[in-house]
Amino acid sequence: MPAYLIRRFAFLVLSLVVALVVIFVLLRLLPGDPANALLSVNATPEQIAAARAQVGSDRPLAEQFATWAGQMLRFDLGESYISGLPVLPEVLARLQITLPLTVLGFLLALAIALVAGVAAAVGSNRWYGTLLNGFAQVGIAIPVFWIGIILVWVFALQLGMLPSGGFPRDDWEAPGDALTALTLPIITIAVVMSASLTRYVRAATLDVLGSGYLRTARAGGAGMAQALWRHGVRNGSVPVIAILGIELSTTLLGAVVIESVFTLPGLGNMLLDAIAQHDYPNIQGILVVSTLFVLLVGFAADIAQRLVDPRLRLSVSGNR
Amino acid sequence: MKRQLALTATIAAAALVLTGCSGGGSAGDEGGADATINIGSLYEPQNLSNTGGGGQGVTEALSGNVYEGLYKLTDDGEVEPLLAADDEVSEDGLTYTITLRDDVEFHSGDPLTAADVKSSVEAVTAEDSQSARKSSLDVIDAIETPDEHTVVFTLSQRSISFIYNLSYVSIVNDAATDLKTSVDGTGPYTLDEWKRGSTLSLTRWDDYWGDPAKNAEVVFHYFTDATSQNNALISGQIDIITSVQSPDALSQFDGNDDYVVNDGSSTTKELLAFNDRVEPFDNALVRKAVYSAIDREKLLNSIWGDYGQLIGSMVPPTDPWYVDLSDVNPYDPELAKDELAEAGYADGFSFTLDTPSYDPHPAVAEFLKSELAKVGITVEINTITADEWYTKVFQDRDFEATLQEHVNDRDVVWYGNPDFYWGYDNADVQKWVAEAEQAKTTDEQTELLTKVNRQIAEDAASVWLYLYPQIVVAASDVSGYPVNGLNSQFYAYDIVKK
C-alpha cells in the first residue's frame, strides 16, 4: 500500500504539471488580445499600447509562461487584469458557494440513487423496478439547465416559495437564507446526477444479486436483507466508488452551468465572466483549482477502492 | 451522512415555510425614506475605477451616486453645475475659471479642494488612462489651482463642449489610493459593500452637502442573463431593471398593473459600418445602394417589436443637432439596383460581414444577408468574438464591413476623423467638425454639426440601421428613477418606494 500511495501521488503531481501547460497553451490559442477587454471603441493607439504593457501581452509567450509557472510554485495565482485583485482569495470566496452546491447536490443525488438503484435491481422483474429504471433512462437525457428553468418556473414564479436566484448578501452568516438560496440549485443537480448514479447502483446490485457468494450466503441460512448487507454492500461498492469519483467531478461541471441559471456568485459564474473578459489570470486560476479538485477526487477514489477491496491490494503487491 | 441529510432537509423545509409568504410584490417591506431599492442590472463593474477599465457598470452604479462631477448631465441631456459654484470663460474662449462649492466633503472627511479636481481631470487624460473620454479632454493645455477653491483650465483651442465633457469626470479625493477596489467620492451615497458576481450596495450618506437621498439604501443586483433578471423582478427580489436588452420578456410586464414599462430615449445606434477605404465601399453610390436595399422597419420590428426608432444618420434625437434623416436613403430595392448599375455593379458583388457573436448582431447579419441577396449582393457572414472584433476591425482595419453598436451620445464627430476604423474621409466634414468644436456659441456648433449630420447621410458613410430603445421596467410601487440612461448613468437618489 505505501508503495502504491507514492506511485499514485507521483502520478497526481505529473497530471497537474501537464494540466498547467495545457491550460496555458490553450488560452493563448484563443484569438484576440486580453488587453482589448480594457479598451473602449474610442481608444487611441497609446491607450492600446499601455493596456498591452499592463497585462503583459506584449511580451513573448515563453516569458509569460515562465512568470506564471514561477507564481504557481509559490501558490500565487496572480492578479486579475480587470479588477486588479489577487485571484486566489477571490477563487476561495467563490468556492464557498460552489463547493457546498457540488457536495450537497452530490450527496442528495447519491442518497436518491442508493435507494432507487437497489430498489430497481431488487424489483427488476416488478413494475416499480421497470418504472425506476425508466425514470433513470429519461433523467440522463435531460439537460441540467432545463430542470433548473422548470424548477424556477414552478417554485419561484408560480408558487413564490423559493427565490428565483441570487445568494444572500450576508453569505453563510445567514445560514438559513443561504440554504434557501441553494435549495433549488441543489435539487436540480441532485435530480440530474441521481439519474446516472441510479443506473450504476442498479447494475452493481444486479451483479451482486447474481453472484455465487450471495447464493452461498443465502444457502447458509441468511435472509435476503442480511445477505445483501453483509456480503453485497462491500462487493457492490467497489465499482460504484470508481464511478463516484468521476461523477463528483461531473457534478462540479454541472454546478458551473447551474450557477448561471440561478445567478449564484460561484466559481462557474466567475469563470464565464473571466472568459468573456479574457481575464487570463482569473481563467487560469479557476481552471487550476478545479483541475486540482478533480485530480484529488480521483486520487481519493482510487485509495478508497483499495481500502474497501483487499483483492486490489494483494494483486498489486503480488505483481511487484 | 443520513443525519446530515435529515438536518439539511429540515432546514430547507423550515426555510421554505419562512420564505413562503415573501414571493410576489416588491422586494423588502420598508417604504419611504428607510426603503432599500433593489436594482437589477446586466452590467457589473469590472473594477471600481472610472479611468482604469471599470466599464459601464462603474458609471451606472457610482456616477452621481457615489462620485460627482463639476457638472452633471441630467437624464434629459442638460448640463447643470454640481460641484462647480460658478464659472467664467475668457473672451477668447481659452481660459475657464471654475469656482468650487466650499461646503463639500469627501466620504473620508477630507474637504473638496482644487487639487482634487486637478488630479481627477489628470487621471482621465493620463497616458495610461482607459477612459473613453480621454481624447475629448486632450484640448487641456494646463490646469492651475490659484487657491483652494479655484481651478483654472487653459485650453489649446476653443472647445464648445468643454463643460459638457467635464460632466463625465468624476471628482475623486487626491489622497485616495487603489481606486480599483475602493472609492472616495462626494456623492449622496457611500459604498457599503461590493460582492463580486452578485451585488453592490450603497448606503445613504448623512453628511452629504446637498439634498439627501430619498431612500436609505440602494442595492445593484448583477445578472448574467436577461431571463434570470426578469424572474427576479417577477418574484420580487428586485424593483427595477435598468436596461432591458431583449423584447421577448416585455410581454409579461406590458399591460400588467404591477409593473411599469418605460420607453425612454437611447443613444445606442446599430451600425452596418463599411470600410470606406476598400472597394467597392469607397464608392458612395454602392453604400447608398446597400442602404436602400435594406428594409430597416422590418428589421427593427423583428428585433424589437414596437420599440426602438429608425434613424438616418449617427445622431439620436437627444443630441441638439438631430434632424429626421430616415428618408435620405429610402428603402427601395429598385433604386438600389439602379444605383448598383450606375456604380458598375449591375451583377452585384460579394463581401464579408464581420459579425460580433453577441446579440443582436447575428440576427441582424442574417437579415441583411437575405435582403441584400434580393439586389444581387452576396453576404458572407463571419462571426467573431467582441475581442477579435477589437483586434481585427478596430485596430487592424482588416475588414470589408462589420456590425457594431455605438452607445455614446454626441459621437457623430467621429466621422470627422479619417483615421477612425470606418475610414470615412470627407474634407468638408472634417472641417465642420473641427470648426464646430471651436464655435463661439452653441447655435453655431449646432448649425455646423447639423451640416455634418446631413452630409454623412447623403454619403451613406455607414448604414445606421436603427436606434435601440432604452427600456426601464419597474414595479409600479417605485418611482423617481431615470428613464433615459444617457451615458449609462443611473441616478438612484430620487427613487422612492411606497
Summarize the structure.
The complex is a heterodimer of chains A (320) and B (498). Chain A has 320 residues and is mainly α. Chain A has helices spanning 2-29, 45-55, 61-73, 87-122, 127-141, 144-158, 175-209, 212-219, 224-261, 267-276, 280-308, 310-319.
Give the CATH H-level superfamily of chain A.
Answer: MetI-like
Q: What percentage of residues of chain A falls in helices of 4 or more residues?
A: over 70%
| CATH class (first level) name of chain A | Mainly Alpha
Residue share in helix of chain B: 25-40%
Query: Mean pLDDT across all residues of chain A, rounded?
Result: 82
Strand content of chain A: under 5%
Number of strands of chain A: 0
Strand order of the largest sheet of chain B: 8-9-10-1-11-18-12
Task: Describe the 3D structure.
The complex is a heterodimer of chains A (320) and B (498). Chain A has helices at 2-29, 45-55, 61-73, 87-122, 127-141, 144-158, 175-209, 212-219, 224-261, 267-276, 280-308, 310-319. Chain A has one domain: Orthogonal Bundle (MetI-like fold), CATH 1.10.3720. Chain A is mostly helical and 320 residues long. In chain A, 39% of the residues are buried. Chain A has 12 helices and no strands. Chain A is globular. Chain B is α+β, with helices and mostly antiparallel strands and 498 residues long. Chain B has 3 domains: 35-66 and 187-265 and 470-498, D-Maltodextrin-Binding Protein, domain 2 (3-Layer(aba) Sandwich), CATH 3.40.190.10; 73-166, Dipeptide-binding Protein, Domain 1 (Dipeptide-binding Protein, domain 1); 269-468, Dipeptide-binding Protein, Domain 3 (Dipeptide-binding Protein, domain 3), CATH 3.10.105. In chain B, the strands form 5 sheets. A 7-stranded mixed sheet of chain B has the order 8-9-10-1-11-18-12, with helices on one face. In chain B, strands 15-14-16-13-17 form a 5-stranded mixed sheet. A 4-stranded antiparallel sheet of chain B has the order 4-5-7-6, covered by helices on one side. In chain B, a hairpin with a 5-residue loop joins β4 and β5 (95-100). In chain B, α6 runs antiparallel to α8 and α11 (427-437) runs antiparallel to α12. The radius of gyration of chain B is 25 Å and the shape is globular. Chain B starts with a helix and ends with a strand. Residues 1-28 of chain B have low confidence and may be disordered. At the A-B interface, α2, α4, α6, α7 and α10 of A face α1, β10, α5 and α10 of B.
